[in-house]
Design goal:
Blueprint (H helix, E strand, L loop, with lengths): L12 E6 L6 H11 L3 E3 L3 E2 L14 E2 L2 H10 L2 E7 L2 E6 H9 L3 E5 L2 H10 L4 E6 L3 H11 L4 H21 L2 E4 L3 H14 L7
Parallel strand pairs: 1-7, 1-8, 2-7, 3-4, 8-9
Antiparallel strand pairs: 3-6, 5-6
Length: 199
C-alpha cells in the first residue's frame, strides 16, 4: 500500500479511462484535466516510432524495445501491453509520485491495462467510454482517415470484444453522445470517488 509522505495530505486518486478506438476518450481526458484542479494525464511509454510532430515526454515516452523490456524486468511499469506490434506501458514511478503528492492521475489505457492496474490498486476509479451505437463508432473511425478499410474493420471487431470485457471490470460506463455531457459525467464520477488508501 502507498505511504503518503505527508500524513495530513489527502492521497491522490487514480483514474483509468478506457474505450474503443475512435470513441473520443482522448478529447474527454484533455477536457477533464483542464477543468479539474490538481489532475494530470499520465504519459505512456511506447516502442512505436515517433511521429514527425510528436515530442518525447509529451505524447509518449519513446523507447527502444530493449529499453522497454528492461523496464518490464525491473517491475517499473504499472501496466503494459502489446498492441498492433508495438509495446505500450505506464511508468510506475511517475504514477506513484503523483499519488503521493495528492494529485489525480488519469491513465488513458486499454482494458487489458485497466485489468492490471485494478489488480494493483483496487480503489482505482474505472471509467469506460461508450459510443452511442456501433454505427456511430464505425462512422467516427471512418472520419479519422488514417487507416485502410481493412484496418478500420479490425479495430471495430476489437472494439466489440473490448466493450464486452469492460462490462465485467469497469464500475462506470459513460456514453459519449454529447461531449460536454460526457465530460461533466466523468468529472462527477472522479469528484465523488475516494482517494487511494482512503476508506
Amino acid at each position: 500500500m502507498i505511504q503518503a509522505r505527508d500524513p495530513e495530505k489527502a492521497r491522490g486518486k487514480l483514474v483509468v479511462v478506457s474505450g474503443p478506438s475512435g470513441v473520443g476518450k482522448s478529447t474527454i481526458c484533455r477536457q477533464v484535466v483542464r477543468r479539474l484542479d490538481n489532475a494530470y494525464l499520465s504519459v505512456s511509454m511506447t516502442t512505436r516510432q515517433k511521429g514527425p510532430r510528436e515530442q518525447n515526454g509529451r505524447e509518449y515516452w519513446f523507447l527502444s524495445r530493449e529499453e522497454f523490456r528492461k523496464r518490464i524486468e525491473k517491475g517499473a511499469l504499472l501496466e503494459y501491453a502489446e498492441v498492433f506490434g508495438n509495446l505500450y506501458g505506464t511508468p510506475k514511478d511517475k504514477t506513484d509520485e503523483g499519488l503521493h503528492a495528492g494529485r489525480t492521475v488519469i491513465l488513458e489505457i486499454d482494458v487489458q491495462g485497466g485489468r492490471q492496474v485494478k489488480a494493483i490498486y483496487p480503489q482505482a476509479v474505472m471509467i469506460f467510454i461508450l459510443p452511442p451505437s456501433a454505427k456511430v463508432l464505425a462512422e467516427r473511425m471512418g472520419h479519422r482517415g488514417r487507416e485502410t478499410a481493412e484496418a478500420a474493420a479490425r479495430r471495430l471487431r476489437g472494439a466489440n470484444s473490448e466493450i464486452a470485457a469492460a462490462s465485467q471490470l469497469y464500475d462506470n460506463m459513460v456514453i459519449n453522445d454529447d461531449l460536454e455531457q460526457a465530460v461533466t459525467e466523468v468529472i462527477r464520477i472522479i469528484e465523488h470517488a475516494p482517494g487511494i488508501g482512503e476508506p
